[in-house]
Amino acid sequence: SPWRATILTLYPEMFPGPLGLSLSGDALARGDWSLEARNIREHGLGRHRAVDDTPSGGGAGMVLRCDVLAAAIDAATVADDPRPRLLMSPRGRPLRQERVRELAAGPGLLVVCGRFEGVDERVIAGRGLEEVSIGDYVLSGGEIAALTLLDACVRLLPGVMGKAASGEEESFEGGLLEYPHYTRPREWEGRAIPEVLCGGNHGAIARWRRSEAERITAERRPDLLRRPD
Ligand code: ADE
């Protein structure tokens, strides 16, 4: 059974969005994964299908109601749904490639996209939502974060990516940033391709690439050298 993603959002029109194109779009069309975007507002209350309310204790903004979101989650899942339930939020655990690998190896995902100032805390615990952040900046909603997370997962599914980029040699998969890439012409605007890449010494090329990857990682992301991943 294909990897199955269910998205709960107030903007289902944002899906599949860019995931309907290119690698992920082709894989979607092949049935290598599936995507279902469901509108939380279908579980809204009253004539206006209200999904949010003012924050208890006062303050600005609106809070997504726990009863509404719980109804949306319950309608989108089965009793023993094996899929992790994520809530996209800047408060969440920072997403890293190791977690992406785990999620891609599983049965799929239920992803809740937050909007407004937040989600009632009780439904996070009550429905076992794991909060995930894609970085230390604030988006206007969880949808673009969910698209990012899905893209990272889908490209790792069996058969989605060609052998060229099957992942292993890429940034983070080896724990290092990527070495520099070049292609023809051999010289361009006074800049030449490093000589070692123009000979056929594959051992020398592999050593050069490794040392460049280490140099660039030390320069730009020294934190990665001290992290197991
Ligand atoms: N929603 C708003 N900002 C976000 C972020 N940085 N990561 C995940 N979800 C978000």
Automatic annotation (TrEMBL):
Source superkingdom: Bacteria
Positions with a binding annotation for S-adenosyl-L-methionine: 114, 134-139
Name listed for the protein in its UniProt record: tRNA (guanine-N(1)-)-methyltransferase
Job of this protein: Specifically methylates guanosine-37 in various tRNAs.
EC numbers, comma separated: 2.1.1.228
Annotated GO MF terms: tRNA (guanine(37)-N1)-methyltransferase activity
Biological processes, Gene Ontology terms: methylation
Regions annotated as coiled coil: none
Keywords attached to this entry: Cytoplasm, Methyltransferase, S-adenosyl-L-methionine, Transferase, tRNA processing
Transmembrane parts of this sequence: none
Keyword Methyltransferase recorded: yes
Uppermost EC category: transferase
Organism: Methylobacterium aerolatum
Reaction catalysed by this enzyme: guanosine(37) in tRNA + S-adenosyl-L-methionine = N(1)-methylguanosine(37) in tRNA + S-adenosyl-L-homocysteine + H(+)
Gene name of the encoded protein: trmD
Family classification: Belongs to the RNA methyltransferase TrmD family.
Subcellular location: Cytoplasm
Record domain tRNA methyltransferase TRMD/TRM10-type: where: 5-226
Subunit structure: Homodimer.
